[in-house]
Amino acid sequence: MYGPLVDAASPIALPAPIAIPDPLDRAAVLAAATHPLVDAAEAEAEALGAELRAARWGRYPSASVEALAATEGSSFADEDGIALNAVLKQPLWAGWRITNEIDRARASLMVGLNRVDEAERDIVLRVTSAYHDYVLSAERADALETSLAEHNELLGAIGRRVEREVSPLADLTLGRSRTAQVELDLASAAEARDSALIRLLALTGGGAVNPEMPPRGVSDSLPLEEIALSEAPPAYRRDEPDRRFGSAARSCAFQPLAADPAPAFAERDHRRARRACRALAIRSEAVAAQDDGCR
Q1: Each residue of 122-145: pLDDT tens digit?
Q2: Rounded to an integer, what is the distance from CA 200 to the centroid of its chain?
Q3: Domain range enclosing 216
Q4: Which keywords has UniProt assigned to this entry (predicted)?
Q5: Of the four, 89, 138, 173, 255, which is 20 to 30 A from 73 by CA?
């Protein structure tokens, strides 16, 4: 198994987003920070960053030392021995080769960072789906358990009425059929709940997650339009004069890179996890409303 132990602290000790349960926020952050797919994408991005740094060193001189075996009468020495030469090379003109290499490495790094974001988004969406499936199946199983208890009580009452010949035998047969159907639905819901929990634990690396439903009325507490506008890329905002993605990508590509990418990766992990988790709130509220209607 991968990921932290059950008692390990969350990688990002920040409060959960508005109306998002703490278990969902912790599971999303945990999966985005520890899943092997994300780790592989981050390792690839770090390798591309090293390639960019190496390409930038092409602008500077390269030093080397040579050891030569000199013999008597050679141009290096008057007697047998070893001659050491220090060589310093600096290209005077490379025909834009070094600049093109730097641009290529920078573009490759941007592609690698986008792969990291894509991997994080995919993992967080899978966590959100598994969490929602578990909560939905658990709520359905609870409702079916209550329904099964009521069916058993009603079936006992019908059985007593049949024994007293007050009700026909067909009522008892129908009651048993409906009770068996409820038992079958309960077993199916329990199986779906256990399957969703296994998926959730696999994504979080076995971290302790106790899923719970979001509070009612979450749509009123979430300023969806404001969140969407604040988190939209600058190239797609209405107040941005240049909406072309290419120019935005080029402006981002030529930004200086941090020496230590770890803080940036950690901040992006939490931001991506929060962003994808907000989608569960509205969906869960709709499911809860449907459950109330079915009951």
Answers
A1: 998 999 899 989 999 998 999 999
A2: 12
A3: 22-60+97-142+193-294
A4: Cell outer membrane, Membrane, Transmembrane, Transmembrane beta strand, Transport
A5: 89
